[in-house]
Write a structure and sequence with these properties.
InterPro entries: Histidine_triad_HIT, HIT-like, HIT-like_sf. The chain is an alpha+beta fold. The protein has one domain: HIT-like (HIT family, subunit A, 2-Layer Sandwich), CATH 3.30.428. It has three helices and five strands, in the order H-E-E-E-H-H-E-E. Bound molecules: guanosine-5'-monophosphate and zinc ion.
């Protein structure tokens, strides 16, 4: 847990969010400003600033993020989804607690790249 981290506060339940999945390693909740029919943020319980940092600090949590992303997409969008990690401010990262955006369903047909 890091002080002044929005996602640590959501994980702790101090800030409300619509959680859709959680286990011992990850928490997933709906993005407050959805960009597609399904737009869920999958975050590791360990605070780390980006995806590479969580891979180094707690690789089992990164693996759990991938499993959770697939599980959510299976439930909500036929198992098909785009998984995005904005890394660094110039890439659009605004919250510096590692998170993957799971995007799927209406509003997101085809590849973004
Ligand atoms: P980033 O831009 O860092 O890749 O993604 C951060 C995401 O967090 C954004 O898509 C933004 O809409 C979302 N977000 C920001 N504040 C909140 C909040 O208080 N609750 C939820 N559920 N999502 C948030
Ligand atoms: Zn955090």
């Amino acid at each position: 847990m890091s002080d002044d981290c929005l996602f640590c506060s959501i994980i702790a339940g101090d800030i409300p969010a619509e959680k859709v999945f959680e286990d011992d390693h990850v928490v997933a909740f709906r993005d407050i400003a959805p960009k597609a029919e399904t737009h869920v943020l999958v975050v590791p319980r360990t605070h780390a600033p980006n995806v590479a940092a969580i891979a180094a600090a707690a690789p089992h949590e990164l693996a759990a993020m991938a499993t959770a992303a697939q599980h959510i997409a299976d439930r909500e969008c036929g198992g098909e989804y785009t998984w995005i990690f904005n890394t660094g401010a110039s890439a659009g990262q605004t919250v510096f607690h590692a998170h993957g955006h799971v995007l799927g369903g209406a509003g997101l047909e085809g590849s973004l790249v």
